[in-house]
Structure formats: C-alpha cells, structure tokens
Write a structure and sequence with these properties.
Blueprint (H helix, E strand, L loop, with lengths): L1 H5 L2 H22 L2 E14 L2 H4 L3 E5 L5 E9 H4 L7 E6 L8 E8 L8 E4 L3 E21 L6 E8 L3 E7 H4 L4 E7 L7 E6 L1 E3 L12 E2 L3 E18 L21 E6 L1 H4 L4 E4 L19 H8 L4 E12 L2 E10 L4 H12 L2 E7 L3 H5 L4 H20 L4 E6 L2 E7 H9 L4 H4 L12
Parallel strand pairs: 1-4, 7-10, 14-16
Antiparallel strand pairs: 1-3, 2-7, 3-6, 4-5, 5-7, 7-9, 8-14, 9-13, 10-12, 11-14, 14-15, 15-17, 17-18, 19-21, 20-21
Length: about 425
C-alpha cells in the first residue's frame, strides 16, 4: 500500500494541483484582486511651447482634460493609492491632425504593481487658433457721485495701457479695457487698486480662460474737490459819444460761476474781475455785446483750479432744452515741459566724417608730410568739435566717428556745417586742398 502511494505519478500531480488551488484560494481571500475608480483626475498637458511658439493658442473642449481612471490590482496595492497618486499626462508634441492628444496613465506609487489601468476616454480634444496681441488704452469709469458740494477732479492711474492677448476669435470681440473707481458720497481724495476688465462693443464683459493681460489691476487716484460760487464783476472803461450815457445795469448771461478745488485754496478766491479794457464804451453810440471766455479771467485769479461753468444758453431739441456745462482745468506743466525739452536736447547723435580725397592728398608725399597733413586735418576737426563739446575718434585711415547731443546738431545745421569750408585750409605741397 505504501509503495502504491509513493510511486503513483498521477496521485502526486493531483496533490500538487490541489495544493496550488488551496494556495490561490488562501491568497485571494487574504489579498484579492479588486477594481477601483478614481474620479476627476486632471490631465497635465506638457510641452505646450511646441504650439504656443508658433503663435497659436488652444482651448480644451468638452472638459476632456478631466478623466475618471479605473485601476485593477491586488487589494494591498490598490488600497494604498489615492487621487493624488494617479498621473494623467498628454504631450503637445504628439498633437494629431484631429487636434487630439493621447492620454498616458501612470501612478507615482506602486507603479506597474497593479494589473491594469485605464481612463474613461483616451484623448484630450483641443480647439486651436491663431493668437492675437493688442495694446489697449485703459479707460477709467467713475461710479457714483461724491457728497453734495463736491465734484470729481483729476483722475490718474499707474498705467494707461494694457497688453491683451488671446484667441483671435475672442480678441475680435474685445473693444474696451476698463477699470472703475467708486466715489459715492466721498469728500476726500480716493486711492484704490482696481481690477481691469474687458468689454465688447455692447458693454458686455468678455471672459475667456485664454485671455491674458500683462497687468491685472492698476492703482487709481481720484481728486475729490469742494465747490464754491464765485461772483463775476464786470468793469466798463472809456467814454461814450457826446449825448449818450451808459446804462447802470450790464446784462450778462452769468453773474457767477462755480469753481472747484481744495477748500483751503477756494478760501483765497473772492471774485472774478472782467477788466474794463475788455468792455470799452469809448465813442459808442449804441448798445453792443461781447462774447467772453470766462476761463481766461478765472486763470488770472485762480490759475490752478477746476472751473465749472454753467451756461444758461439753451438749444432747442423738439420740446426739450439742453443746458450745457463745460469743465476746464489749468495745470502748471513748466517743469514737465522743461524735462521733455532737456530729454530731446540730450539725445545722442552719431555721425561719420569722411575725408574723401585723402588718397589724393597723400599721393607722392613722404611719410612726414602725410603725418603733417593728417595732424592738420585732425586739428581742424578737433577745434571744430571743441566748440560744441563733441567727441571725435578716428576709426579708419580716412574716417572719424562724431558723437554729440541733439541740441548741437540743430546748431550745426544753422551754421551749415562750416567745417566743410574750414577743412579746405589744409593743403598739401602739391596745392591740393582737403
């Protein structure tokens, strides 16, 4: 019996099979194969520059850059994974003619220890078009009204232009770049950081994930100015013709204007005087009228104020009338203008001076004579340059580099470059002039 059991090959194979089956059952009971789905995995698009360097932009369609990933494997492997361990990558260098990118899946933990990994879709679908770049003037919109007795004065921002880029189809809709400053109820200056927004021709905001701006916000400052009513005094000069007299009352469209500025400055202004030289009745024999620009006379007594002039003139518009209001502002820009002028005057100017007959001057001359001629030429040029602080350097046998400020160029033009005549005083022994 013992011999029969130990020498039976079939029985041994059956025992081996049963042992493997028991091992497999034990293993699967203890660490079974399971399947888990990880939702909302963001696909990372790499090597975007291979497209953007061609002046193109892309947009992901139908949210195809988000996938649900299913992983199959041992429980011990799968249970150790989370959404953070799932990696989905699409390479822009693998862009197809259908504008799709294949999605490659992996894990950064227990990689390749799972049995299978797959996504609910295999590619990212893109919309691709040309990129357009545009520089736009930044508009500032005032929101609200300041407190009674106050007006909005000068408005400044740290930037007045913004560079906008995006898909050409979207950029064609953008007509305005604007930001706003709220002055509602304010009695003091406003300084705020305002976001820049883009709008279409209908005033609707334009938003798109691929719209980019070089700056997203600017700092805006708005002056809030007090107002004051200022009387206008009309003075008359001269003597009317014999037998005529001047009416005691002068009829004027305005007897006062509103002036706006800082309260401390407004306290210094009392009235606006129209000089008699403007309203002269000398030799007059009939009534006359004059049209005056009150801004001219406000400037004399208050040169740095806003003036708000209310006009009583009406323009017929059917059954309606329109009252006009003009706003002017005087600012002393002398310092800024001087800086601008100085900047323009000090711009560098480079020129090249050529002695075009140097070979003829040197022909059949000894080295000593050649040196004398060259020294005489350079003396003339040096004396000429010293008169306007120019810099002269020889960079070739017959060529000189001249550096000077722009203001000197205008002077030399006025002199008609007299050096071209003075250089003729240099003559070689053969009587040939430079």
């Amino acid at each position: 019996m013992k011999k029969k059991l130990t020498h039976n090959l079939g029985l041994k194979l059956a025992a081996l099979f049963i042992a493997f089956a028991l091992w497999l059952i034990v293993v699967n009971i203890d660490d079974p194969v399971i399947t888990t789905t990880f939702s909302g995995i963001q696909v990372e698009i790499i090597n975007e520059s291979s497209l953007t360097d061609q002046g193109k932009v892309y947009e992901v369609l139908d949210n195809t850059d988000v996938v649900n990933v299913t992983v199959t494997g041992k429980r011990s492997v799968i249970d150790s994974l989370s959404e953070e361990n799932i990696k989905a990558v699409a390479d822009m260098e693998d862009l197809t003619l259908m504008n799709t990118l294949a999605i490659s899946l992996s894990t950064n933990k227990n990689n390749q220890q799972w049995d299978n990994i797959r996504a609910d879709h295999a590619s990212v679908t893109l919309s691709i078009e040309d990129q357009k770049v545009q520089h736009m003037v930044l508009s500032i919109v005032v929101v609200g009204e300041p407190a009674d007795g106050y007006v909005v004065g000068d408005i400044n921002s740290t930037q007045n232009t913004v560079r906008v880029s995006g898909p050409e189809s979207v950029m064609e809709r953008v007509t305005t770049a604007a930001c706003s400053v709220n002055v509602s109820g304010r009695t003091a200056d406003v300084s705020t950081n305002a976001d820049i927004r883009l709008y279409d021709a209908n005033g609707e905001r334009v938003e798109h994930p691929n719209l980019k701006m070089n700056i997203s916000s600017v700092n805006i400052s708005a002056a809030i100015l007090a107002t004051k009513a200022v009387d206008i005094v009309y003075n008359v000069s001269g003597t009317v013709a014999e037998g005529y007299a001047v009416s005691e009352n002068i009829i004027a469209d305005h007897t006062a204007v509103y002036v706006a500025g800082k309260q401390s400055a407004l306290d210094q202004i009392r009235q606006i005087n129209i000089p008699g030289s403007v309203l002269s009745v000398e030799g007059k024999t009939e009534s006359f009228s004059e049209v005056l620009d009150l801004n001219d006379y406000l400037e004399e007594c208050a040169p740095h104020y806003y003036s708000i002039i209310h006009s009583d003139k009406e323009q017929e518009a059917g059954t309606e009338s329109v009252v006009f209001m003009g706003i002017t502002y005087w600012v002393d820009v002398t310092d800024y203008d001087n800086i601008r002028i100085e900047y323009e005057n000090t711009r560098p100017v480079a020129g090249v001076i050529i002695i075009d007959n140097l070979d003829e001057l040197f022909k059949n001359q000894s080295d000593r004579v050649k040196n004398d001629i060259r020294d005489a030429v350079e003396d003339k040029l040096g004396q000429w340059c010293s008169g306007f602080s120019g810099i002269l350097r020889r960079f070739d046998r017959d060529r000189y580099l001249l550096l000077m400020e722009h203001r000197q160029l205008e002077r030399l033009r006025g002199e008609k470059f007299k050096i071209t005549d003075e250089i003729h005083d240099v003559v070689n022994p053969a009587g040939i002039a430079a």
